[in-house]
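S.,

Sequence below, as promised.
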Amino acid sequence: MQTDQTTARIRSLNDTLRTTLLGGKIMMTQGVSVLGPDRLSRLIERLRTFDQFEEGNDPYGEHDFGAFDQDGQTYFWKIEYYDPSLSYHSEDASDPEKTARVLTIMRADEY
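The prediction came back faster than expected:
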């Protein structure tokens, strides 16, 4: 069971990755990678400014998932926590020394 302090640290690290694109890896699915530069730029800006966290999409308060519509398409983004070698799940998502964050953005129909 996580403490409020641990959850707050995870949320802060996730928010940093999402808003600055720093502190982890950013991945995109094939459906996102084929967007032209203008559409991709708008999509990334939408990701960076996402703030619609609620119980339904953020039940643990970690800010690790979101969904939004843009240009007639629904997109999801998700942050996963891996060990530094990207081989296994991180043993402590609140510790950046033990965690490699990977944010993936995808079309909903690719999920």
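The chain has a mean pLDDT of 96.

Coffee later?
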